[in-house]
Amino acid sequence: MSREPSQQNRDSSSNSDRTNRRTVLKTVGAGAAVTSIAGCLGGSGGTGGTIKIGHIMPVETDNGLGSERSAQLAVDQLNENGGILDNDVELVTADSAAQPSEAHSAVTEMINRENIQMLVGTVVSEVALSLADLVAENDLPFLITGAASPRIFAENHAQNYDQFKSIFRPGPVNSIKQAEYLAQYGQFLSEEHGWDTMAVVSEDAAWTQDITDMTASLLEESGIDVAVNERVALDTNDWTPILDQVESSGAQTMIGALSHIPITGMTSSWSRNEYPFSLDGVMIAAQSPQFWSDTQGTAEYLSTATSAADGFADITPKTSEVMDAYQSEYDSRPTTPTFVGFITHDAINLYAEAVERAGTANHREDIDSIVEELQATDFEGSYGQIQFQGPDDEYPNDVYPGEGPGDEFAPFTITQWQAAEDGNGIGDTDGTKRCVWPETYQNGDHQTPSWM
Amino acid sequence: MSNEYDRSGEPVVQRFTREFLGEPNRYQIASAGVALLALLTVPFWAGQYLYVFALASIWAIFAMGWDIISGHTNYISFGHSALSGGAAYTTGVLVHNVNPDMAMYITFPLSILAAIVIGLLFAVPTLRLEGPYFSLITLLGVLVLTQLVYIYGEYTGGELGITAVSTLTYNLTNLYYYTLIPMLLIGAVLVVVSQSNIGRILRAIGENEAAIESSGIDTTRFKLWAFLMSAITMGIGGAMLAHFYGNITPSTVLVVDRSLEMVAIAVIGGMGTIAGPIGGAFVFIILRDEVLTVFGSTGRWLALWLIVLFFLVFLRDGIFPFIWSRIGSIGGGRDE
Question: Which residues are listed as membrane-spanning (chain B) (predicted)?
Fold first, then answer.
């Protein structure tokens, strides 16, 4: 059975509309000044028995919708266990459409109309960055669950911690770490298969800059020849020249960093033409549990970086709990929480624990207590153990990345699309995902394409 | 339009309204007054929509800026967001690269100047050309500028944009008046221009440029002036938008979609009327951000563009000229 979280929000927003309108009428009747109305509408932060959690994501993408449903799941579970501080919890969600301006408007409305106590979400870094000032101004706890730019913390917290103290990132690790880990994964492939030549192909977007700059040079340092290090335009349709270039370079794998550019066409072209190299990297579309069916099975052997191994390996005991709860609630696309969903689920739960410890969720009056308890977080989440970096660290409030990708703290995993045994594939397909790296969480070997 | 000037004893206010609003009947005056009063008192009757209304005010500035050149002369610009986006990016680039604490009294005029310069670069050479060249070149202008933003990502932040700009205010009531009042002032100036002889010539250029030229009027000069006014208006709006969001990204201020929205607003509101696009902006933004959101973020755009299409087909003059003439015909109708 699938539910409609957005319907609930519409109902709840019309409730608050009524309240607001009454407030307005009363105030106008009293002939009060304009500014006092703004005060009433802005709210004081204390709500009558309900704690509202705002969720902002591009909900028309698999990652965004997976996150929204996982957030609803977390909220339902909290309510079954008595809510937060004996208050009911309510989810208010909005669609950012991956646009900073949309998100800014939506969050302004959530703060002023819905009086949310906490905000969770964002996968696109420019969206997170554009919300920083707004949430900081409102002392609103903001837990970022997908956007990976280190700038969020380097440009805000590191400059003025007190102003931006309410913004945290429970995961994933930032893009600099991701670039570093990707190079380590390249070394793993080199050791595993004896590969000595690789290609790095990134889409021309800011989030891939660290991969272009760092991944390639780290690979070179470890003795791997990076024969191609290309940035491709965001509107690339025809992949043939790029695939040909990688082939002629002699690379045994193409490490891609592709999010905005659709890759279903590239994937089937690579598979059907049997290009003699492996496809690895950060392939956002391939994180979706429906990528196998989207590519009619040609996704086999393609691997991508993700968190929580997209639910296909037991990173912590909670991983399968969230996965199972999600799947018993939702059977439409995306059929798994997606990596963002796991982190969002964790974010809401660690927030709930922090405000329970703080004894208040009233961010307008007591943000310091809430921030203090968030800072003290040591939470076993579904994607890993979560702690935050301290105010004096390089990236204050960003997730503590641990010692490496296989560490218990904020693990970084690579999953590969593989053929499933005896019809145990995702949905009705014969494809599944296995975690192939790092070794700590591995439940399958990295396979080279059968035609290589 | 009547051109009787032999009314020397006429009171100033009466003469002003006759000159600039035609000869409105009392219903028209009353409804214009009610609309103005409604805008000024939004915090009292629609407090929760302040943010949307504030955004609509900025879009009203853009639509008027577009209208004074394209709505009047029929030189249709498909790239006006190059002007507003250029202004917004000037504010952002200055704050981001030169001095994060640079005061608005420095960034604001420079942003307006940037809009004028961009206008001169792309549009002015083409104002002499007839046919589709003006439209095509403005369209290319915005495409070129968008790519430049990506190429010079080091300074512009690329698709991540610039987030260093200070927000006008987080108090929504103040925010509303900070956007409404400049919008009304710009609107007042442009209505006066539009209803003056300059405006008449601009509209006449739109109807039959050759005829105007043959009567000895240098149409290029008028188009230049109109474009200059347009660029200044776009510059003001662009810099305001940068401070409204506190961030500047190509998708927020620059891409060609934003240009098309300006055209759509003017079409819905009533091209060539200045006041029409103001109303059009409120209708458009409220539809976009409040009403049509029930269709989801993609469905909303589809619905919105279908509505615009509907207007193009069935109500080509726009909502407000239509309403205005309907109200004008109440009680016998002095409409021509």
Answer: 51-69, 76-96, 102-124, 136-155, 175-193, 224-245, 265-287, 299-324
Contact A338, A66 (CB under 8 A): yes
* Whether residue A289 is found in the same domain as residue A429: yes
Tell me if ipTM is over 0.90.
no
Please write the tens of the pLDDT for every residue from B208-218: 998 998 989 99
A100 and B245 in contact by Cβ < 8 A?
yes
User: What are the structure tokens assigned to A380, written together?
Assistant: 């076993």
Say yes or no for a CB contact (<8 Å) between B173 and A35. yes
Same domain, A265 and A375: no
Query: Cβ of B161 and A100 within 8 Å?
Result: yes
User: In the structure, what pLDDT confidence band is assigned to residue A43 with cuts at 50, 70 and 90?
Assistant: very low
Of A355, A346, A344, A381, the C-alpha closest to A117 is A355
A334 part of a folded domain: yes
Bond preceding residue B24 cis, omega within 30 of 0: no
Name the pLDDT band for A87 (thresholds 50, 70, 90): very high
Q: Is B246 in contact with A104 (Cβ distance < 8 A)?
A: yes
pLDDT tens column, B229-240: 999 999 999 999
Predicted local confidence at residue A11, as pLDDT: 38
pTM assigned to the model: 0.82
Q: Any idea what the CATH number is for the domain that residue A207 is in?
A: 3.40.50.2300
Residues from chain B contacting residue A206 (CB–CB below 8 Å): 153, 157-160
Instruction: Judge whether A64 is closer than 8 Å to chain B, CB to CB.
Output: no
Identify the CATH number of the domain in which residue B306 sits.
1.10.3470
Query: Which 8-state DSSP code applies to residue A399?
Result: B
Note down the domain range covering B133.
49-320
Chain B contact present for A14, CB below 8 A: no
Instruction: Classify strands A142-144 and A167-168 as parallel, antiparallel or unpaired.
Output: parallel
Residue A33 sits in which domain range? 25-173+320-386
Average pLDDT over chain A, rounded to whole? 88
Q: Residue B47: which of A24, A134, A234 has the nearest Cβ?
A: A24
Identify the closest residue of chain A to B241 by CA–CA distance: A101
Number of domains in chain A: 2
Return the structure tokens found at B157. Answer: 């932040």
Using an 8 Å Cβ cutoff, are A299 and A267 in contact?
yes
On whether both A325 and A303 belong to a single domain, the answer is no
